[in-house]
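Collaboration report, partner site 2.

Our partner group contributed sequences for two proteins of shared interest, and the home lab folded both. The records are reproduced in the order in which they were received, starting with the first partner submission.
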Amino acid sequence: LRRAPKSAIVTASPNTAIVIQPTTHRLGEIMSCDFCTITEAQQTHIIYEDESTVAFFPNHPATPGHTLLIPRAHIPDIYSLDRHTAESLARSTLVLAKAIREALLPEGLNVINSSGTAASQSVFHLHVHLVPRWTNDRIGDIWPPKQDLNVNVEDNLAERIRQKLDDTTTQGLQ
């Protein structure tokens, strides 16, 4: 794993607050983004970084070892993600997942992205949660009770998605 250079790590207590500074985003607007500030190495627990991504512990981890992975570029959600950044995030996710498994010996791992308010996205900078899991940890089951969907409804939904996949691949997002 690559680690953040010592000069980039603020020495403080484990609960050091993130310093929020105005950030210029791709479209030129000035706004504050907690995660853009982290990409500028102003957070204490940076776990991994490469040219495109940064990984760190969140302020309120769901389990020990819960890690957030973000692109360095400000990208608000998965719908705004370009192919190059998607490939970088996927590569870094695999590197981190393997390191978490070897270091912490979890019984499982949740890899989660929430895009949009309805999906519980609270910071509008794309991020991936890597959450180590153990039997009887404090998270419990993350899925609602099983419910069958009408086969005709499933067929209709599948067809609608397939049509949009054709549109997407013709737009160069293959």
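Second partner submission, folded after the first:
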Amino acid sequence: RTKTDRFARIVLIGAADSTPYTNVVVLLSFWRGLLFPRRMVRKVDMGKRLTVLVMDDAAVVRSLLVAMLADIESVNSVLQAEDASSALNLIERHKPEVAILDVKVPGQGPIRNGIDVLKRVKKTQPDTSVIMLTNHATSRYKAECEQAGADYFFDKSSEFERLLDTVAALAERM
């Protein structure tokens, strides 16, 4: 058997597991070029080079997003943060045009989660487009994020492609 055959069998076995990140792991594995559908790959060159911040406490999700965003030519760099305070430090230092934030991340003091980071970003850098990406895509969280100023709100389990479309569209407008 080829390496790809063995890999596909492992992915299919892993897909039977019902952990929250199973789909993300499968997508990440496919994304690296073994079996991922070509239609997901974006090559957009709009002239403007974006800096994007990704804040998520799950390393596998951050890795997936970095890999996906790297295929958008208008994305110059992707900053990564695993918690709220790291995200705010990176945002203050690099002033990204786009911030992709998870709702539930570790935080301390007055910045306890992704919604608190969202509020701070919209207060200090209102031109930054903020995309909330979460496994907690309930109407309560969506309303709270919209009220805090989120530009977009996506479900991690089903809307990664919409996220890429959104970043590409933001690049066109900037």
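Feedback sent to the partner group on the second submission included the following. Helices lie at 3-15, 22-31, 59-70, 84-94, 114-124, 139-148, 160-173. Confidence is low (pLDDT under 50) at residues 1-46.
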